[in-house]
Amino acid sequence: MQSMNPHAWLRNGAVAVAVAFSAAALAASYTVTDLGTLGNGSYATGINAGGQVVGNWTASADIFTHGFLYSAGVMMDLGALPGGGTFAKAVNDKGEVVGSSGRFGLNDPHAFVYSGGTMFDLGSLWGVRSGASGINVKGQVVGVYLDAYSRDLISHAFLYSNGATTDMGLSSNASSGASGINASGQVLVNAYETGNQGPSHALLYSAGTLTDLGSLGLGTTVGNAINASGQVVGSSGLRAFLYSGGTMTDLGTLAGDSSVGQYSGQGINASGEVVGSALFPAGFLNFSTKVWVYSGGTMRELNSLIIPGSGWKITDATAINDAGQIAATGCGPPGCHALLLSPITNCGFPFGDVIKSPSTPAPTDVIGYRVVMPDQLAAAFTSQTRFFSKTTIGAMDQIGTNVAVDVVIGTDATTLPGYEKTGSYTDDFVGHLGPLPAGAYNVRPTVYVDQAGALASICPASPASTLLDVFAQAGPTKTAPAVEYHWAARDHYFVTQDAVEIQALDNNVFPGWLRTGQSFLAYLPHQSDNRGRPVTRYYGLPSAGLDSHFYSASAVENAAMGRPPFVAAWALEGKDVFEIATPQTLTGECPPGTVTVYRLWNNRPDSNHRYTTDLSIKQQMIARGYVPEGYGPAAVIMCAVNP
Predict the structure, then answer these.
(1) What is the pLDDT of residues 496-510, one digit of tens each?
(2) Which residues are paired to 519 by β-bridges?
(3) ∠ CA 312-317-318, rounded to 5°
(4) In this structure, are strands 313-320 and 30-34 parallel, antiparallel, or unpaired?
(5) In angstroms, rounded to a whole number, what is the distance separating the alpha carbons of residues 193 and 205?
(6) Is 583 in contact with 636 (CB distance < 8 Å)?
(7) CA distance linking residue 123 with residue 132, whole number of Å
(8) How many CB atoms lie within 10 A of CB 335?
(9) Which stretches of 169-286 are assigned E, i.e. beta strand?
(10) How much is the pTM?
């Protein structure tokens, strides 16, 4: 568990400024994940349904490119066929990768399939150069090979299926190459009319028939990607196109683009969302690039859709999966790297879409609420983040009244007239509405961050039921001690607030566990009225060498527990075993009227923690080799109720 150091979750800050709300503010739609590099830089070429990304990286020690597969947070080198480098082009939903490998320019490269940790040489029909560009879930591969026996070095599209490579049977006098294949076996092919020159055509091979996709009347047409239903994207003349149902459609240009740019569609998913780029002249022999995504009939520049202040400039987008994740490349502080852009689906967890005030409201009655930021935004903001909210309450005379909660992300230095500072935590914030009369209210929260002097939404419009957890104050909050036990034989500590568990432990139902005399006061589940946050409990499985428990009130840490490698070793036992306040994540400062709780890790493979409010016990545990975990210089993990 030491790898879950809270300091590793601190976020890259964003600052909000006092500006007027604009309903036309452009929504940021994607988070950015840096896939890193194994050398000097990297770039992405493909993505599958599971978010695995393939691409290539460069090393200073040689002249070759090297292929990579990025999966579950790890970039892995694919290796190479004898003689040199590797170019990885595409990946299927099984994680099988295709491309070309060999000593480029020396020993001619061959198409390969990488599967199960091994790279297989697909060879070439004529023993010379070949390269693979697509693979479907059946393991069928398409690409291009060079006909070394032709006078003009004509290339040919090939299909590899069931262990055999076949020429796709296009003209022997004109070059062709396959650029993609879907699960149905439909193949996207590009071919010249004659030789290696002149206009090219995009062709769709389906059930033994070749169909020319036509053009937009602007000359050469190139198909770059095909989706599950046979839709194709690419370029025709200077425009990007979408081919669907026998019709080629011009995707248009970016809003405000009055210059002559070369637009090209690079990737398409099952929903018809397209990613691509546009190349513009920028002086003599210089060009500038804009990267875009096309969805719902609108083309938008990707750099305007990523989290503000991320530090990245997107320079290329090559593929998009059915979840809307984009394989991209961008330049930022670490250099130019392969990136994964993930769509922001909501801001919060589904806890309810209406709120009810007390049945007999008094003038001072208010309704508390909590907005929870999703884990995918965790890397976007730092512990300096503060939340500011402004509520707009409509007419109060009917059920279903709309209550709007506008939230701005800022810092302590931010002042926003009309906005209330409602939170100081990195994962969520709390506030209050009212006083309100009895009734049900539809709540619509919107979260904004400063972007170049204007408020930009960082969450798309979604049903309130996916966004807001709001509940009425219902009398005084209830607390109970979380009691500590120790098992001397294993030197394990355990805390619980559950009365049934306490009775069982005290009655020796689980032999070996004894009270230490230590405890701290916490809110009962669902009883903190936003003064505390739910604490999740996990059980470390004996099969993983653990047999221990772990507690966390951090949404970021809890999200990490649900992903590899932790999800296989730690079983979820409860999402709200008790509730407790949390500290300011930069300083470790607890809210007024609370007591500091420290967490100490035993620094052993069996991964047990001790939770204590006693500073002298903390020092004793450190002297025994325990490692403090928490926020701020004092490593504070929680803030207990002051008795």
Answers:
(1) 999 889 998 999 988
(2) 483
(3) 150
(4) unpaired
(5) 17
(6) yes
(7) 10
(8) 13
(9) 176-181, 187-194, 197-206, 209-212, 221-226, 232-236, 239-244, 247-250, 262-268, 274-281
(10) 0.66
